[in-house]
Structure formats: C-alpha cells, structure tokens
Amino acid sequence: MLTGITGQDGSYLAEQLLSRDYEVHGLVRRTSTTQRVRLDKLFHDSDVYNKRLFLHYADLDDTTTIRRILLKTEPDELYHLAGQSHVGASFEIPETTCQFTGMGTLKLLEIVRDLAKQPRFLHISSSEIFGRPQTAPQNEETAMRPVTPYGVAKTFATNMVRLYRDSFGLFACNAICYNHESERRGESFVTRKITKAAAAISLGRQKKLKLGSLDGKRDWGYAPDYTDAMWRMLQQPGPDDYILATGFAHSIRDFLDAAFKAVNLDWQDYVEQDPKYMRPSEVTQLVGDASKAKEKLGWTATTNLHELAKRMVRSDREQQQNASYLSP
After folding, report:
1. Which of 68, 88, 136, 223 could cysteine-pair with 182, CB 3.0–4.6 Å?
2. Is there a catalytic annotation at residue 126?
3. Measured distance CA(11)–CA(13) in Å, rounded
C-alpha cells in the first residue's frame, strides 16, 4: 500500500514494486480530473491495472476510509509518501502542511497500531528536519533544528514514527531523504522550474527565468535511487532510520550551470533574481552522510548533479517539442 502513489516518488516506487512481482495498492484523492500523468504507463498496461495495481479513494484525514481499506487489503508493507511537500508553500499554508504532513502520519500510525495484521511501515522524512545544523554532513543522530513549517511538520512525524516503534513495537522506519529530483518532479519545485526554463529558452519560447536566492546549497540525488532504498529498508530484519543522500552539496547556481550547459547556454544571460521568491527562513549546510545506508542496505546514490540536470532538461525539451507538434 502506497500513500502518495501519484507523486514523483510514489510512481517510481510503484513501478519498482510491480517489477518485483508485488500486488500494489495506492491511496488517491478524489478530484475533478482522473488524469494522473505519472501513472499513465501503468494505467494503459492491461496486464497491470486492476490486476496487480489497484487504486482506492481516500484523503489523509479520512481515517475511517483508510482503516476500512487497510482492513480489506491487509498489506504487508505500507509506504507513506503523501503530504504537502513544497517547502516554500509551507510558509503560505502552514496549517494545511502540519495537518497533512504531521497529523496525517500520526493518524496512519494509530490505524496501523490497531490492526491485527500490522504492515511494515515506512515514512518518508526530510533533510528539512535538520534546518540549520551545527555540523555537516548530517547523520541519523544529528539534532533536529527545523526552520520551516514543512520542516517542523516532518520533525513531528519523524519523532512519532520513532515513538511508535519504541513504544508499541511497530516495524516503523524513517527514510530521511535529502532533495531528490527527476523528470517527474513537480513544476513548482525550483529544479523543475530551472530545467523547464532551460528547455523553453533553448527552443526560443521563453526569454527569462526569475528565481529567489541562488546561494542555498542542497544535496541533490535521483528519485528512483531513493525509492529503491525505501524498499530495502523494509526488507531488513529490524526497523531503523536511514539517511538517504549523495554526500555532495551544490548551490542553485551549480544546478543552473548544469541545466543550461545541457542546451549549450550560459544561465547568467537569462536568470534574474526576484525578491518575491525569497523565503522568510532558509536552511543551510544540508548535506547527508549515507554511510549507514551503504553499510546496512548496500545502497549508494548513483547519479551526480550534472547527469541529473541533463536528464531533466532533455525530458522537458522533448515534452515541449511534442506538445508543439500535437497542438492544433
């Protein structure tokens, strides 16, 4: 069972689980549109959809429905990936962020606690729990000092997972993920905003790109690597928390440079800074030490920043060219 199956991580994890012969169930919100682009390939596979892949309607705050679904499906593994995950937006909608990211996790834990058959549980945590750490790189023992509403909500959820593991014996794990991107990244995230702009500018369809601070550094990895690690975490003899990271920090400028070089352009000719995109509080020094995941899970990140940006720009360029070709 996956919450957030229609998101970037959920779609990759669903594909990986299906390739391992799992029966996969996903929780989705009922909306006015049934279009779920990241799952299109699976929807149109007659050997998969409604045979090994099943979707169920439920919001994270609809505990009665979620409990009913879990009682019916009796999953062996529950991957909790859903929640309001945009850090910048969390300053505008802090209550919604805390309700779905923080309380949504607690409600799931309470349901799992009461089940006769308790699935192994994974919560996708975030490097934002560390905020402005005093040491770098961070590991699983680093103190949590969140500085964003999203980071505060994830800190609450992460500690609740630990509490339910220690107090109630749940097989509950935190995947403490540093930034991980892909061709399926949401368009409101800065990396995808950059790669879409680089593609559009290279095709003559956009002239400028406006961004906030260019100084912030992130540890950027490739999403399919990280979802593979999530699966590995639930195959271990016992539950634990793991940092998932590349171990290398790069600035927004570094990502801009890699993305625009993929289309043979100099980003400095096209990028403008706009104060309205500046965050009230910014994290610093976020770079992860994934040595525990390497030792215990046999996992390491495989894709560097330049290859990641190149893949994303190539994909965005192809999408924009195809859209132009298909438009009347």
Report:
1. 223
2. yes
3. 6
As beta bridge partners, residue 208 has none
β strands within 167-238, DSSP E: 172-177, 180-181, 209-211, 217-218, 221-222
Give the per-residue pLDDT at 94: 82
The answer, as to whether pTM is greater than 0.70, is yes
Instruction: Give 63-83 pLDDT, tens digit per residue.
Output: 999 999 999 999 999 999 987
Dihedral pair phi/psi, residue 2, rounded to 5°: -125, 130
Catalytic site residue from 15, 77, 128, 181: 128
Separation of alpha carbons 78 and 120, rounded Å: 6
The verdict on whether 22 is a catalytic residue reads no
83 closest CA partner among 171, 14, 169, 152: 152
- Please indicate whether residue 96 or residue 243 has the higher confidence score (pLDDT): 243
CB 284 within 8 A of CB 213: no
Catalytic site residue from 11, 126, 202, 315:
126
Identify the structural domains of the chain with CATH numbers, from first to last.
Answer: 2-183+222-244 (3.40.50.720)
Please check whether residue 215 is in contact with residue 206, taking contact to mean a CB–CB distance below 8 angstroms: no
| pLDDT surpassing 80 at residue 324 | no
* Cis-peptide, bond into residue 239, ω within 30° of zero: no
DSSP 44-101: T-TTTBTTTEEEEE--TT-HHHHHHHHHHH--SEEEE--S---TTGGGT-HHHHIIII
Each residue of 39-62: pLDDT tens digit?
888 988 888 998 999 999 998 889
With 0-12 / 13-18 / 19 or more C-beta atoms within 10 angstroms meaning exposed / middle / buried, residue 261 is: middle
Per-residue pLDDT of 86-136, as tens digits, reads: 666 767 778 888 888 999 999 999 999 999 999 999 999 999 999 989 899
Q: 66 phi and psi, to 5 degrees?
A: -60, -45
Q: Would you call 18 helix, strand, or coil by DSSP?
A: helix
Active-site pick, 12, 79, 150, 178: 150
Q: Is 178 a catalytic residue?
A: no
